[in-house]
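Q: What structure does this chain adopt?
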Amino acid sequence: MRRSGLWPRCWGRDVVADAFGWRWLSHRVGLLADRLGGVRTLLIGSTLQGLALFLYLPAGGLVSLYVVSLVFGLSQGGIVPSYALIVREYMPAKEAGARVGFVMMATIMGMALGGWVSGQIYDWTGSYQWAFINGIVWNGVNVAIMLWLLLRSRPRKPAIPVPAPQPA
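A:
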C-alpha cells in the first residue's frame, strides 16, 4: 500500500512535510531552480545564507536566534541540491554519477571541517562572533566562485535526443 508514491515507513515524514508546508516550499524552490539554473540558485541560496550568518552576530534572544536559524536552514536546503544541478548543466551526462558523488562528498567534508574549525575558534576566543565571521568569509569565497562561474562560463548544451525509428 502506497501513499503519495512513498512506502509506509515514510508516511511520518510525509505528514510532517505537509503540515508545515515544506513540500510546497521545496516544490517552488525546485521550479525556481529549473528556471534559473543551478549556479543562480546556488548564488541566491549562498547570499541568503551569508545574510543569515551576518544576522547571527547581533542576535541576542532566543526568538531572534530561531528566526535567523530558520532563514539559515531554508537557504541551506536550497544550496545542497543545486550542486547536482550545476553538475548536470556543466558536465557530460555519462560522468554525472561520479561527479555528483564527489561534489556531495566535498560538500559534506567542507561542512564537517567548517564546524570543527568554528568550534576551535570558539575554544580559542571564548566567543561565537569570530566563528560566525569565519563562516561569513567562507560563504563569501563560495559566492565569489559562483559569480566567476556565472560570468566566465556557459553551461553545456544538453544533447539533443535522437528520435526512435518508427516502424514502417
